[in-house]
Design a protein that fits this description.
Shape of chain B: globular
Bound molecules: sodium ion
Helix content of chain B: over 70%
Strand content of chain B: under 5%
Order of helices and strands of chain B: HHHHHHHHHHHHHHHHHHHH
Chains: A mainly alpha (210), B mainly alpha (466), C alpha/beta (313)
Order of helices and strands of chain C: EHEHEHHEEEHEHEHHEEHHEHH
Number of helices of chain C: 12
Largest sheet of chain B: none
Oligomer: heterotrimer
Largest sheet of chain C: 6 strands, mixed
Shape of chain C: globular
Strand content of chain C: 5-15%
């Protein structure tokens, strides 16, 4: 159920790594957000063009489909960094210290393995749509106006590669915390109980309506 | 081993991962990938030399899913609906709405609570997410109710429960998700949510009025607003009405001519109008950037579960588990209605422990085909069906029931997200307080669900008009 | 041997040859060679060639127009105004083209061997409002038509509008578009005839080509006897498909139109010739130019197809 989260930082190497990765992740998430915004603008232009100028955007649906991977996937590492991917924390939430780091280490390592395999799988998906010898390097195209699909397909392995970096960092931090028995390691989202989390979530919409 | 056995084992494994606290999206994706490897390897008789082949085929099969399943126009509604909520907040629409509801409806018994329900229902017509709606109204409505002497726990309960209306009254992100998973028309489902949403609001209102008339020391009615005050409260609240009316006009041109666009375009146009209002109300790049980042984070969270679960669904397809479950369910010697009620009760239990979106995504691939089979199949006519409705209409009806169940889960302990959020906004309220205050609304929701099951036309009348 | 077959949607006229093929193969192999036909469980309809190429399943159906760049050679059959006169002819021409070395090589990039087509009748328009009495009346009309048919329609001044198939009904009802092009079975399943007022019987701007393919490695891995059974059953499965489409779908189409009082518009020969002139030649020229640039013998493929059609008519 995690929404907002708490990530500590200091001037250690790990923390600086976390911060530079965060810089990249925020940029990518902002691209996601801007893509949502552009969908809205695209609809306005499409409707306006059709109703006032008899000139709809050719391939409107194709363009939306191209934008979706940007919206849906670019921000995946940022969301992982902030602990924003939901989970059931009934069990983990009641753990403290080493047992908790052990659980986090195992599940995060499992995610890392999954994502490394999916970098491979999504790269293969991209590769099947890409050919240097074809016009526009395209071996797969959209239905209506035949846009090359490889740029949209390429978004996936790129974003997945970044979350692999993030996961590798988290696995390292959890592993070290497990060995050293740390209380509050830097660079990973710390577990706040559900109520604290909700308070942080609520704080995000606070102070705007006063 | 038979594919169906592999399907059952892997599904069990996924549940264990989820309970262990692995993030739902990845638990589903990993289970799906492992299942695919297992199925492909079993087809080659588990020959060690063929493991690499099985791994390659499974990874490449799973690797298609994120791009291909996400690239859909219907899914583009989800981020749009989320963005609308943030923009409406910046446009100051929420506060004006509550003020108007208060001046017009606070005179009835339990008046401020009733006003809260009405204002929230109005905001639900632009907001696509329950949790965000509760968070917004907790800040606006609770202080006013406390000021006239409402029990603070009850005040919090009203807001937590009313927030769930946002997922029935269109726009609704969760209805879009349902439509995508079961491959039904998004527009029809959104339309179908309207009357049950309003119906729920009415049941909440009746409950509040009933409590106010029977309980002692319930919050008093708030009277004394002049007609002038009432009418001056309307203009600031008008924009929200305007947005809704524009969207409706947009899709169903009232001047008799051609419509200006499709429902998906209507959603985007609504968002654009609210964006202009927010600009007018002083939103600038820093606030917009924050809203975009929050929209991105929430959208990515939802989309990651979607593709993670769809990898698992791809594996289920190879294992043919949904087909087997549907066959099993239809051979049960129980009345189909009883089976349906058992399914809904199972959702109530599951929803106590799980997030609504995760719950729907994980279960629908197996449950939906089974329910369709109970009714007589996707292409059944109303006359030949079990529940007296065509396959398409059954999909709509079940969708509204399931979404209402999922909303119910947002206010039930131990993991009722809306209650957490309300408690989070108010320092003086604990989560236990909110759960206590929201209890009467369980009864209201149980009544609503029972009525929707007993009288499907409440759900189906509007969509059958299109 | 057990094969997995990936198709999509519900079982319908469009998939009857696959169902029949599975029956015949199982029957003639004494149950030794079976096919699991999955409707959407194994892959999305635009990823079926990917799945074949990976080896995730052994047989699949797809439409060339879903992804022209994946299979440029067979999109020649989707050009407007080829002049096919029947489903039988379309089946025949498709089968012949599927044996052409350039086409075989094109699909070999996906490790796929073309098995049989799923011929569909020409697309035509169901529309609302003022019925067009001549081809010029399409000028300025918003129509739902994608790909090559969209291009042909814009040649006569119509405004092709892009939307997904599920939104089409609503868009037609509300007037976002005035006319929609589909094959008859799709007009029935997407409900456009429920609100449509007219139907163009012979505009025939083109259709889609949807082959059934098998994974080449899987085909090679079959025993000689199994391969013989499979290949030997294709003709019979195709015949079943054609009978089914003609006897069930097309037979239901005319009465369905009459029941709803839908006006049937038939254009004169001179009209159609003018339309053909405006749209057909430029589309063919553009297709040949583009695909020659890809390294395909595009002119040869085009001449091959039009030659076969001329011969048949
Ligand atoms: Na809503
Ligand atoms: Na709950």
């Amino acid at each position: 159920m995690a929404g907002a989260s708490l990530v500590l930082s200091d001037d250690s190497f790990v923390s600086r790594l976390d911060q530079s990765l965060l810089w990249l992740e925020r940029k990518m998430a902002l691209v996601s957000g801007l893509a949502v915004f552009s969908l809205m603008i695209l609809a306005v232009i499409s409707v306006g063009g059709r109703n006032f100028f008899s000139q709809p955007i050719p391939g409107y649906v194709d363009w939306i489909e191209q934008a979706m991977p940007l919206i849906a996937i670019m921000g995946i590492a940022y969301t992982q960094r902030e602990g924003g991917h939901i989970r059931m924390d009934l069990l983990v939430g009641n753990l403290r210290g080493r047992p908790m780091w052990a659980a986090e280490f195992v599940t995060t390592l499992a995610i890392l393995i999954l994502m490394v395999l999916l970098v491979w799988g999504s790269w293969a998906h991209f590769q099947r749509s890409f050919d240097f010898n074809e016009p526009w390097w395209s071996r797969d195209s959209s239905m209506d106006i035949r846009l090359p699909l490889w740029p949209a397909k390429l978004v996936v392995p790129v974003a997945f590669f970044v979350i692999c970096l993030r996961l590798a960092l988290q696995v390292f931090v959890y592993g070290r915390a497990l060995i050293r028995g740390e209380e509050q390691p830097v660079g990973v989202p710390l577990h706040a109980d559900a109520a604290t989390q909700a308070a942080m979530e609520a704080a995000q919409v606070s102070g705007r309506d006063d | 081993m038979e594919p169906i056995q592999i399907g059952l084992i892997v599904s069990g494994g996924m549940l264990v991962l989820v309970i262990l606290g692995m993030r739902v999206a990845f638990a589903a994706g990993l289970s799906g990938l492992v299942g695919l490897i297992w199925i492909f390897w079993s087809r080659r008789g588990y020959d060690p030399e063929d493991f690499l082949w099985a791994l390659t085929v499974a990874v490449k099969t799973a690797g298609q899913v994120p791009h291909s399943k996400i690239s859909s126009q219907a899914l583009s509604l989800i981020p749009t609906f989320i963005l609308i909520g943030y923009l409406a907040y910046h446009a100051g629409l929420t506060k004006a709405l509550f003020e108007a509801a208060k001046r017009w409806f606070a005179w009835v018994p339990g008046g401020l609570a009733v006003s809260t329900v009405f204002a929230t229902a109005g905001f639900a017509a632009v907001s696509g997410a329950s949790v965000a709606t509760s968070a917004v109204f907790a800040r606006i409505a609770i202080p006013e109710m406390l000021a006239v002497g409402y029990d603070k726990r009850f005040a919090a309960g009203v807001v937590a429960a009313a927030g769930t209306l946002a997922s029935l009254i269109p726009p609704s992100a969760i209805l879009v998700i349902y439509a995508i998973i079961v491959e039904q028309d998004v527009g029809r489902l959104l339309l179908a949510g309207f009357i049950p949403g309003v119906f729920s609001a009415v049941v909440y209102t009746l409950l509040i009025v009933g409590m106010a008339m029977t309980l002692k020391n319930f919050g008093p009615p708030v009277t004394g607003f002049t007609w002038k005050e009432r009418f001056t409260s309307l203009p600031p609240a008008l924009p929200i009405v305007a947005v809704v009316v524009i969207i409706i006009f947009f899709v169903y041109n009232p001047f008799g001519g051609d419509a200006w666009g499709t429902p998906t375009e209507g959603g985007a146009i609504g968002a654009f109008i609210v964006f202009l209002m927010a600009l007018y109300r002083g939103m600038r790049w820093p606030q917009l950037k924050e809203a975009l980042l929050e929209t991105a984070k929430l959208s990515v969270m939802i989309f990651t579960i979607i593709w993670g679960v769809l990898i698992y669904v791809r594996f289920l397809g190879f294992a043919d588990l949904p087909g087997a479950f549907a066959d099993w369910l239809t051979t049960l010697e129980m009345s189909p209605m009883l089976i349906l009620i058992c399914i809904l009760l199972a959702y109530a239990v599951l929803g106590m422990f799980m997030d609504a979106i995760g719950m729907l995504l994980l279960t629908l691939p197996v449950v939906f085909p089974a329910v369709m089979a109970l009714n007589g199949g996707m292409n059944v006519t109303a006359e030949a069906s079990t529940f007296g409705m065509s396959g398409t209409m059954c999909a709509v009806w079940f969708g509204i029931l399931v979404v209402k169940m999922a909303e119910f889960c947002l206010i039930t302990p131990p993991i009722g997200l809306n209650c957490f959020v309300v408690a989070g906004v108010r320092d003086d309220l604990s989560v236990q307080d909110v759960f206590k205050g929201v209890t009467p609304f369980f009864i209201a929701d149980a009544i609503t669900i029972a009525l929707l099951v007993a009288f499907p036309w409440i759900v189906l009348w509007l969509p059958s008009q299109m | 041997t057990e094969w997995n077959v990936s198709v999509w949607g519900a079982r319908r006229a469009f998939t009857e040859h696959v169902e029949r093929l599975a029956e015949l193969v199982a029957e003639r192999s004494g149950g030794e060679f079976t096919m699991n036909i999955s409707y959407g469980g194994l892959s999305g309809n635009r990823e079926n060639l990917d799945g074949i190429s990976i080896g995730a399943f052994e047989m699949a159906q797809f439409c060339a127009g879903y992804h022209a760049d994946k299979n440029p050679s067979i999109t020649v059959l989707e050009l407007p105004f080829l002049g096919m006169s029947s489903l039988e002819q379309e089946a025949e021409v498709s089968m012949a083209l599927y044996q052409h070395p350039a086409v075989v090589a094109d699909l070999a990039r996906w490790n796929a061997t073309l098995l049989m087509p799923s011929p569909l009748p020409q697309y035509n328009f169901v529309g609302r409002g003022d019925a067009p009495s001549s081809v010029e009346d399409f000028a300025g009309m918003a129509v739902r038509a994608t790909g090559g048919i969209g291009a042909a329609m814009s040649a006569i001044g119509a405004v092709p509008t892009s939307m997904t198939a599920t939104e089409v009904r609503q868009a037609l009802d509300s007037g976002v578009v005035q006319a929609v092009s589909f094959a008859p079975h799709a007009h029935m399943s997407f409900g456009t005839i429920e609100s449509g007022e007219w139907w163009t019987t012979n505009l025939n701007p083109g259709t889609v080509n949807c082959p059934v393919v098998v994974n080449t490695d899987a085909l090679d891995a079959l025993s000689d006897a199994e391969r013989e059974i499979l290949m030997g059953a294709v003709d019979e499965a195709m015949q079943h498909y054609l009978d089914y489409y003609n006897d069930q779908t097309m037979a239901a189409w005319g009465p369905a139109l009459d029941e709803r009082g839908i006006e049937q518009i038939t254009f004169g020969d001179a009209e159609l010739a003018a339309f053909r002139e405006a749209a057909a030649a430029p589309a063919a020229a553009a297709w040949i130019e583009e695909n020659t640039a890809r390294g395909l013998p595009a002119q040869e493929l085009y001449d091959f197809v039009t030659g076969l059609i001329a011969e048949g008519n």
